[in-house]
Amino acid sequence: MAGPWNPAAALRMARTLNLDPRTEISLAPYSSIRIGGPAEVLATVRRATDLARLAACAQSEGQFPFVLGGGSNTLILDDGIPGLTVLNLCREVVFEPQPDGVLVRTDSGMPLAQLARMTIRKGLTGLEWAVSVPGTVGGAVVGNAGAHGSDTAQHLVAAEVAMPGQEPEWLSVRELDLAYRDSALKRTAANHRVPPAPVLRAQFQLRPGDPEQSRAAAKTNLEHRRRSQPVLPSLGSTFRNPPNGFAGTLIEQAGCKNLRCGAVGVDTLHANFLVNLGTPGTGRAADVLQLMASVQVRVRNETGIWLKPEIGLAGREADRYTAALLNPSA
Ligand SMILES: Cc1cc2nc3c(=O)[nH]c(=O)nc-3n(C[C@H](O)[C@H](O)[C@H](O)COP(=O)(O)OP(=O)(O)OC[C@H]3O[C@@H](n4cnc5c(N)ncnc54)[C@H](O)[C@@H]3O)c2cc1C
């Protein structure tokens, strides 16, 4: 993540907006793997308008706030996140009937699984796959979250994004250019070495369905998760699946299932999950990074394939570590 970071300005902006910012707050409790250093400045937003105003203020001063959703796809480095981190608790959802279905307009901090359950209760179909996916709508838009043969792109119509130097704008799903765990927002951020531009709200187009069928599909998806994934804290799939293969299978074949580094280990049920085996808050991001590197080397030695990370990193040195994870010779 490129600087400069100005914590004093971040504090001032968040205070002006009555967001009660705090400094040097551990982010481990806000990460699904329960690992991570502190936010230099942490502001919590509960209304999309506040997120928009905070983003505009920060961007006008050349600052790029890091929006943290469920922290279920982000390894927060041990020295924490410099500058402004925004914890997104904006959760308003509006259902707008349309001639051909219902337009669901949701704040980006809404947990995706909760939104999916809400839509099923309303008799709508389309988000049954999402009942088992942690994280927020914002994180799902940025990373095109998906499961059970579907993904965010299937029913997303548009997302409202606060781009630097512009009024918030609704970008169509086409403009967002979602791909496998990827989006234009994610790519632009990576190219400029800044966090993704804040997603404020999203719209999904859903159809009326058979509630019995939707409930049954959701139940099947949840049961599949319980059978195939660990309950210990993790960040989900650590590595992207390579073309025509599964990262988990390659990791298992390379004999990594017993690997461990500090309090972090390769999960015995699903080898693409690295789990925090210690008490919450005891693991270190450095252990996760070291374990990821060991897995990559073993898999490459066994198969010739260099696994690419699916999780993102946040922190001062995130770019350097990401480059090393992407490129064996970096
Ligand atoms: C047990 C487990 C199972 C999982 N299973 C799946 C699965 O089946 N399918 C799948 O796709 N993923 C899965 N994941 C990964 C994760 O749930 C998804 O990637 C999820 O969409 C991340 O959302 P989040 O809110 O937690 O994002 P975070 O980790 O908080 O953020 C991820 C990135 O998105 C950015 N971001 C988040 N919100 C916003 C916003 N409002 N505006 C701008 N940028 C934002 C962050 O800055 C960061 O760069 C799993 C994770 C776990 C722990």
From TrEMBL:
Transmembrane segments: none annotated. It is found in: Cytoplasm. The active site is at residues 181, 237, 310. Residues 34-209 form the FAD-binding PCMH-type domain. It catalyses: UDP-N-acetyl-alpha-D-muramate + NADP(+) = UDP-N-acetyl-3-O-(1-carboxyvinyl)-alpha-D-glucosamine + NADPH + H(+). GO terms for molecular function: FAD binding; UDP-N-acetylmuramate dehydrogenase activity. One of its GO terms (cellular component) is cytosol. Coiled coil: none annotated. Keywords: Cell cycle, Cell division, Cell shape, Cell wall biogenesis/degradation, Cytoplasm, FAD, Flavoprotein, NADP, Oxidoreductase, Peptidoglycan synthesis. The keyword Oxidoreductase applies. Residues 208-227 are annotated as: Disordered. The keyword Cell cycle applies. It comes from the Bacteria. Pathway: Cell wall biogenesis; peptidoglycan biosynthesis. GO terms for biological process: cell division; cell wall organization; peptidoglycan biosynthetic process; regulation of cell shape. Its EC number is 1.3.1.98. Its cofactor is FAD. Cell wall formation. HAMAP family: MurB. Belongs to the MurB family. This is UDP-N-acetylenolpyruvoylglucosamine reductase. The gene is murB.
